[in-house]
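Worked example 3 (structure in, sequence out).
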């Protein structure tokens, strides 16, 4: 189990980062999230305070990337590929 914190000061893009207690980037202005076995549950707790939260790239990389992947899944471009028939003109 590790103690987790969320940065009370958002990043320039408005996202609050979640850090493990032993991370070198734990911010001074922080809110404690309690003890968690994995960053996923810590992130859930952080999102109750700050809906736009994500794991720190350094200490909670699994949660850092999953937050971005979740957004990308919804934006999937679908291309319709089908036979296109051109009207044959007989003159
Ligand atoms: Zn961190």
């Amino acid at each position: 189990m590790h103690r987790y914190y969320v940065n009370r000061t958002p990043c320039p893009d408005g996202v609050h980062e979640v850090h493990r207690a032993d991370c070198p980037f734990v911010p001074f202005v922080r809110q404690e999230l309690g003890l968690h076995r994995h960053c996923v549950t810590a992130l859930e707790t952080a999102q109750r305070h700050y809906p736009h939260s994500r794991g720190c790239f350094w200490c909670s990389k699994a949660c850092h990337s999953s937050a971005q992947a979740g957004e990308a899944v919804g934006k999937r471009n679908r291309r319709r590929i089908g036979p296109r028939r051109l009207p044959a003109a007989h003159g």
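Notes: Residues 8 and 30 are 5 Å apart (CA to CA). Residues 61-74 form the longest helix (14 residues).
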